[in-house]
Amino acid sequence: MTTFVFDFAEGNKELKDLLGGKGANLAEMTNLGLPVPPGFTISTEACRAFLVEGKEPDQLATEIAEHLRALEDKMGRRLGDPTDPLLVSVRSGAKFSMPGMMETVLDVGLNDESVVGLANQSGDERFAADSYRRLLQMFGGTVLGIEHDAFADRLDALKKRRGVIADTELGVEDLRELIAEYKVVIREHTGEDFPQEPAEQLRLCVLAVFKSWNTPRAALYRRQERIADDLGTAVNIQAMVFGNRGATSGSGVAFTRDPASGAPGVYGDYLTNAQGEDVVAGIRNTVPLADLEQIDPPSYRQLMDIMAKLEKHYRDMCDIEFTIEEGKLWMLQTRVGKRTPEAAVRIAVHMAEELLIDRDEAMLRVTGHQLAALMFPRFAPDPERRSVATGMNASPGAAVGRVVLDSATAVEWAGRGEKVILVRKETNPDDLHGMVVSQGILTSRGGKTSHAAVVARGMGRTCVCGAEALDVDPENRRFIVRNGPVVNEGDVISIDGSTGEVFLGEVPVSDSAVVRKLEGEDVDDPVAHAVARLLMHADEVRRLDVRANADTPEDAQRSRRFGASGIGLCRTEHMFLGDRRELVEHLIVAEDEAGQAAALDKLLPLQRQDFTEIFEAMDGLPVTIRLIDPPLHEFLPDLTELAVHVALADERHIEDEHDRKLLQAVKRLHEQNPMLGLRGVRLGITIPGLFLMQARAIAEAAAARVLAGGDPRPEIMVPLVSTERELALVRAQLEEVVAAVLDEQGVELHIPIGTMIEIPRAAVTADKIAHWADFFSFGTNDLTQMTWGFSRDDVESEFFAAYLEKGVFTASPFESIDVEGVGALVRTAAELGRKAKPGLHLGVCGEHGGDPESIHFFDSVGLDYVSCSPFRVPVARWEAARSVLAARASGPGSDVR
Ligand code: ADP
Ligand code: MG
Ligand code: MG
Taking CA 540 as the corner, what is the angle to CA 538 and CA 544, rounded to the nearest 5 degrees? Predict the structure, then answer.
């Protein structure tokens, strides 16, 4: 038979699945011999059984009763005993910490009789009454579901009647009056009296904690943090200790290192004469932990010893909660502490230096997401700066601009060169044009999966959402900060997408020290140095190569500095924009082959120059050049504008042959679904001259570099192939041109020709396609669009937010690869391709190439490299190493989350 209840002495820190994080760590501390008030844990399994069956498992009550009896024996007190009562706390605790999401009830076991016993035993009537009113309040709110305001309002009214400000100023009679009122509140709301029977109180608390797993806010939080819905929570029942018993008592929280900067040295807050929840709730002002050294030297010394011991034991920075009851120290919680990205890096490197962990472990401790956050520009640090409001850190970065309250205004002001921040209650698809032109987006509603958050992340815009303290008032062109200033349209604000903070005025922005260091600058910044050191280690560990998506010499150089071992995707389309547009127009409107050839002849030297510069920047490294991919009409003027232009010219009897032909071409090339239209290899087959001009430019540029003593390594990549026949046709022509050029120039060079795999049909026939390909590169953006059958540009703004909200998917498949669907196609294509051609070189060049979770997947299917935007290159090097380490460890603690 399953056991559902475990004494603290029976558990350990590895049992988080079963005992939850809090329970597992309370057990660990107990077994380390630390002073933990005794207690027991009801397992997550019991919770899951309850949630599935709608009632407690049969033997649960018996098991709880047995453990309670043992606890009573150990404490020498009985729960709710009228003369000397044992009180307990009932504390939720899931596998992953979900701060503020679930419930805890303190002082369980008090009733009309035991409150007298507690007063007698402690010799403190006020303390007893205060504990009872706290129980009624917490029990009423948490267990009985009564609005917390119903109690808070009574307390406020009483304080007003007595003319006092703090609840500590209320006397014992006042508290008794409050207790009576609270009982009335409970009766009015539930039709029943507060349960006097302690065992019944306990049972109801346990069930309430179980149920709190499924509250809407807990479910939403899990979705945002990607925590599975079916884990359930454990419940910890623990003997109460009291920090609210006068000047020799108190409660505190502490970290074994600074969780903000990562600097060594303990860090924390302490509050005299208080229960733990007062510290966290910020009811009174705390003092720095260091002051405890004066307040209670023995407890302070003991605490320091314990913290050192915990850090050694956990080999990580720990976060603890403690209470001192009349000079006796009690440990109430510990866990590996949350930290900022800076702190994560510094702590990992320090601990490696202290030989507490090795370098591999240090790498595992810092996620690629954290590294990425360190690479954004940020607000220059200033300890004096105060935010006026805080929302969710929905999309990182530091944005400064003038407040605009609707998208039309954003577009108008941005059009005249203003930097703007779009402030809305929430955004919807109509706001898209306003979001595009804004530096950042700030909303007062919605979480990390709201429209604003999803779209901003997709666009790489800074976003703070759900800043509830803001009352956004577009009618009056302003927003009001609760208990704070009024901010008018046009005022400058600054928002920090990495912390969620909102500041008035312009906060100076500085480049990331990590980026400057990686760019080769001499920076004096411990975090930047630590990152550089860990990256060197990452390069020793990783199996995957990392290339960059770059199509200018500047980006190529930057990628190189960031550690890319080549270019995995050099797009050529931008090379046809600007003043070259006109040449493309001539190509398109040409009536015969001679006309086309003339236009291509003019494009050739320009293209050659493009490639020469890139080969120079990437000398000795591979450069995969993708032949032109987008539909041609993208290079032509807008249909409506052109039509108007031509009509006006007609009116004035101006003959413009070129424009007239252009208009015909635009009409001819117009497509209903351009993403599925005449593009990629389809262009190469229907207008072969274009591809061949590009191939000639590549070969000529490469030959010239060789003759100049360089080491160019071009690779030609054909986009949008669906069937082997397409690639076979195009390849033959490309090979011919390349051979001719190399022959002309007298240069020997192997230029591999490969294909993108970005259409599902290509993925499932990859063995056939491999026959004609020297390499595959997965274009996971198109592959995702085509597999799901939706166009990214449309869906992200239209319904992704709703899909995420409703849990259709937990992350956008454009951000993180959909392993089950799109990933299966990648795996299939890789296997088929390599079966047909062992050693076939495989890479990925979609944006997923820079996404931490996706990189682990690509590593696991055996790709040779990932290619991503230059700024993502360090992140990809990092995650490629973590993927190896995680796979190696693949036991407890190897979680990549
Ligand atoms: P959370 O998960 O929200 O931190 P906890 O279960 O840790 O909730 O409880 C909140 C606070 O209640 C703790 O910080 C602690 O100070 C206090 N508390 C919990 N159990 C006890 C106990 N047995 N004795 C004294 N205080 C307790
Ligand atoms: Mg806690
Ligand atoms: Mg594509």
Answer: 75
